[in-house]
Design a protein that fits this description.
two-stranded antiparallel sheet, Rossmann fold, binds zinc ion, alpha/beta, 7 strands
């Protein structure tokens, strides 16, 4: 893998610089519309990354934030704040980021995430909460070259003035991708059972908000929240860009 990346990275950088930037959703180029802006280059965002999203498409993705509530093992509930429903344009952008390495789309996606963060604003503990990105297993992290949830969490942490603590949660077991498993039935829950381990909170920082891209069934979020809780964290909830329509059918407590 290291050998492959040694030559693919310069090629990708050159292609990104020489190839005209196109909007991922409507395919127009920057001469035909205003353009979404690049933001701060947190770790993982390179000098040649560009947003690949025109302003009209970014406007079309306007947030419609909503809360869901997931039932955890033992009867506890986890609040999931989503910037919008998981729909085709959002899935396309997240897919471009995760599977095609178009990292610059993290900028407009993180802006979308701010709307989800607003849903936590009135919650006790939110002013002191750390953002904890959903980790990848080290093997997948090496294969992908970055963790998209950490890119989003780092950008949101800067935007919101919060600490980002990726080191407290790790994925200790490599699992098949949830997206490749049936969306109903026990397969997804079994797949991530025991897949996470967390370290204890440091002094003065006990609240955590998980950050991830999409929540389809919520099983991965539930497993990660369980690991953080077992390590002594108070998990306020999870912040995602998109949640599936049926996620958490019971409304969250007011
Ligand atoms: Zn567009």
């Amino acid at each position: 893998m290291r050998g492959r990346r040694a030559w693919t990275w310069p090629v990708l950088a050159l292609a990104e610089l020489l190839w005209p930037e196109r909007c991922l959703l409507c395919d127009r180029d920057p001469t035909r519309a205003a353009w979404a802006r690049a933001g701060p280059r947190v770790r993982g965002l390179r000098s040649w990354d560009r947003p690949h999203l025109c302003a009209p498409c970014a406007d079309h993705l306007a947030p419609a934030a909503r809360r869901c509530s997931l039932r955890l093992a033992g009867g506890a509930r986890l609040t999931v704040a989503a910037a919008r429903t998981e729909d085709a344009p959002l899935v396309a952008l997240v897919g471009a980021l995760k599977y095609h390495g178009i990292r610059g789309v993290a900028w407009p996606l993180a802006e979308l995430g701010v709307a989800a963060a607003d849903l936590f604003a009135a919650d006790a503990g939110w002013p002191a909460a750390a953002l904890v990105p959903m980790p990848l297993h080290p093997s997948r992290r090496r294969q992908r070259g970055f963790n998209q949830a950490q890119l989003l969490a780092d950008l949101l942490a800067l935007r919101l003035g919060r600490p980002c603590r990726p080191e407290v949660l790790r994925r200790c077991r490599a699992t098949p991708q949830q997206a490749k498993l049936a969306p109903t039935g026990p397969a997804r829950a079994r797949n991530v059972q025991g897949a996470f381990a967390a370290g204890p909170p440091p002094l003065g920082l006990a609240e955590a908000v998980l950050v991830d891209d999409l929540a389809t069934t919520g099983e991965t979020l539930a497993a990660a929240a369980g690991a953080l809780s077992a390590a002594g964290w108070h998990v306020l909830g999870a912040l995602v860009l998109g949640a599936a329509v049926g996620l958490g059918r019971a409304p969250a407590d007011p």
